[in-house]
Amino acid sequence: MRVLLIEDEPVLGQAVQEQVAADGHAVDWVARLDEADAALRAVDYGLVLLDLHLPDGRGLDLLKTLRRGGDQRPVIILTARDQISDRIEGLNAGADDYLVKPFDLNELSARVMAVSRRYAGNPNPLISSGKLKIDKAARRVWRGEEAIDLTKREWAILDLLTRRATAVISKEQMEEALYDFGSEIESNTVEVHISRLRKKLGRDAIHTVRGVGYRLGSD
Amino acid sequence: MRVLLIEDEPVLGQAVQEQVAADGHAVDWVARLDEADAALRAVDYGLVLLDLHLPDGRGLDLLKTLRRGGDQRPVIILTARDQISDRIEGLNAGADDYLVKPFDLNELSARVMAVSRRYAGNPNPLISSGKLKIDKAARRVWRGEEAIDLTKREWAILDLLTRRATAVISKEQMEEALYDFGSEIESNTVEVHISRLRKKLGRDAIHTVRGVGYRLGSD
DNA sequence: CTCCCCACGTCAGTTTCCCGTCAGTGCCCA
DNA sequence: TGGGCACTGACGGGAAACTGACGTGGGGAG
């Protein structure tokens, strides 16, 4: 699979390029949006890794333009921790996934691997929990045979819960994952989302650990 | 990753424990070789940090015994500057790395990180005691095949009991661990929690040492 | 540009259940 | 045998969590 990396920080760019290349993919690395534009027109990439803060424009605009033009290619956003609002906007704009800097290169490998599997026509590995089957790469969930539609927030929470399979995730962690750094939430938003998720996924899909957080699975 | 720290100096031990814990690892800290022995038998550690000068024996002997038994777990030696011959002997005995006191805590983090990268991908280490299996990272307990739900307080107590595997923990220590400094308790709360824990985990999961405290295990 | 839809944050009323307390009983050792 | 120390069932207060309802704002369709 051929990957386009759009990143202007030399150190991070090099690290990512090496990592993805080590996984057996061809990586084209550009640092500016106009180069990215040209590359996207010339080559049929299987995946785009997009940094949102570039010297000559906002990465988000590139993504929006792509999607408006009907381009469905997978895009994974690389974003800094303090730019979570961008991340939300990115998901709205049609990104497939995001990684928060500084990210673990192995985590990157895993995401790239998921995309490449889809690219090769192979199904993605399914995470299952009780009656649920979760395809993280394709952002899809099934409850038994029935496919479930999740909203962005709902997916973000489920994504957190599946990241470390059996771990307990606190409400604070969920807030951090969902909201802009510093924008405090003073209501029970997370609880409400959990409630909505349970309505869709089944009452016992998510287990409450009172005073601590939530965990995937019922037992 | 779960780390065993074998170190008898309180100040250094505490500093190391905090540093490694801050890096996201679970740290068990023992000061004597017999405790280390017991801990190593009970828990599948991802890394051992070993001080060579301990009150009840030579750390090197522990390392040699481990390696002779075919144990391949990573061991990093902590040694003083004037004991370089020990260091050489340590490497001969099968240590993976060494740090010379006084060492920079960031240097420690780097070494630990290197080990944990190798370790990544493995399932969480399980602590076992009798029929119990305890996954501290996931905050879960099994009694045989059956998963057990623990409340916050119950988990806090079990956590204490497993922290120093064979040690007897007094009720006072448990109170201190459970409650904010200053908020005094004047009832038999700890006993009640122990009782509730035993109901869930099995009568002989926790042993009473009358007049002293509690200890994990039945014998 | 306008209208509609729906995702989401907020709130309030209700429910759940954790935990500290107490009291009665049992057990261990002098 | 008696005096503590420990165990455990019961209970009530209150914090934490759940959920139905509502308003709003942003995105998509026309």
What do you see in this structure?
Two copies of one chain form a homodimer. Chain A is α/β, with parallel strands linked by helices and 219 residues long. Chain A folds into two domains: 2-119, Rossmann fold (3-Layer(aba) Sandwich); 127-216, Winged helix-like DNA-binding domain superfamily/Winged helix DNA-binding domain (Arc Repressor Mutant, subunit A), CATH 1.10.10. Chain A is 42% helix and 24% strand. Chain A has a five-stranded parallel β-sheet, sandwiched between helices. In chain A, a hairpin with a 2-residue loop joins strand 10 and strand 11 (146-148). Chain A binds chain B through residues 106, 164-168, 209-212, 219, and chain B through 117, 120-121, 124, 135, 137-140, 147, 149, 151-152, 155.
Provide keyphrases for this structure:
Arc Repressor Mutant, subunit A, 219 residues, alpha/beta, elongated, Rossmann fold, 8 helices, five-stranded parallel β-sheet, DNA-binding, homodimer
Q: Per the principal axes of the C-alpha atoms, what is the gross shape of chain A?
A: elongated
How many helical elements of chain A?
8
CATH C-level label of the largest domain in chain A = Alpha Beta
Can you tell me the residue ranges of chain A where pLDDT is under 50 for at least 5 consecutive residues? none
Question: Architecture of the largest domain in chain A, according to CATH?
Answer: 3-Layer(aba) Sandwich
Tally of separate domains of chain A: 2
**Computed structural class of chain A:** alpha/beta
Rounded radius of gyration of chain A (Å): 18 Å
Give the biggest sheet of chain A: 5 strands, parallel
What multimeric state do the chains show?
A: homodimer
Q: Show the largest interface.
A: A-B, 11 and 14 residues
CATH topology title of the largest domain in chain A: Rossmann fold
Helical content of chain A (DSSP H or I, runs of 4+): 40-55%
Q: What's the helix-strand series of chain A? A: EHEHEEEHEHEHEEEEHHHEE
Strand order of the largest sheet of chain A: 2-1-3-6-7
Could you state the CATH homologous superfamily of the largest domain in chain A? Response regulator
Question: How much strand content do the residues of chain A show?
Answer: 15-25%
Our measurement of the CA-to-CA distance between the termini of chain A, rounded to an integer number of angstroms, reads 40 Å
Number of strands of chain A: 13
How would you state the average pLDDT of chain A, rounded? 77
